[in-house]
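ASSEMBLY PREDICTION REQUEST
Request ID: AP-0331
Submitted by: J.K., bench scientist
Number of chains: two
Total residues: 238
Priority: normal
Notes: Please return the full assembly, not individual chains.
Input sequences:
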Amino acid sequence: MIKLIGCALIVVATSAIGFRVARVYRERPRELLLLIEALRLLRAEIEYTATPLPQALKNVGARMHSPVNIVFNTTADELSGADVTVGEALAAGVRACRQKAHLTDADFTALAVFGRTLGTSDLLHQSQQFEATLAQLESAQKGAAEDRRRYERMWQYIGVLAGLFIVILLY
Amino acid sequence: MTPEIRAIFQIAGIGFLVAILHTILKQSGKEEFANWTTFVGFVAVFVIVIGYVDHLYSEIQRVFLQM
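STATUS: Completed
Returned structure:
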């Protein structure tokens, strides 16, 4: 009886690990989509309504879902505080978001590079910067969706099968 | 269940799991990992079988070569 319970525990544990790894692949495309949507909103705030940046960031943060809203809310908070550049504030926002989100370092680097250009040029060049960052994030999103299709199911299977493998070896 | 029958089921189970894993890994384009799992399965089965082979040889020695 105890043996059976132990077997079940092993299988459940390895399956949980597998599903956890698979979750990264499931969440990343969704979060990238949210990030793209957030940047589009920010672009509209800046180009169309010409809202001041802290307020624009706050508006975007209020309209976004977790975990992407953390980036914008933290950046807005940082900006309203001591004298920091936008790049530093956005870097702080990215750091705050990093533990919660399933995005990779490359995604965050794109965002941080974009943050360093935010508010340093006129509308035309800012617009070009938005285009470039959005294009980069969109290609990352396509890659993430492809990765999801390939690896999500694979990791789930590997988790369960590895548990069964260990159980058979030790039984 | 005698130990021998258990070993047979164990080996069959490992073969089954490794076959599934190999297919899934190959489908996801991770061919080298697929080959490694096959190798690991082979080694696991080998470890199980080697005890029985050892037993077999000592038995042969005991029956035929007893001085």
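REVIEWER COMMENTS: The longest helix of chain B spans residues 31-64.
SIGN-OFF: pending second reviewer
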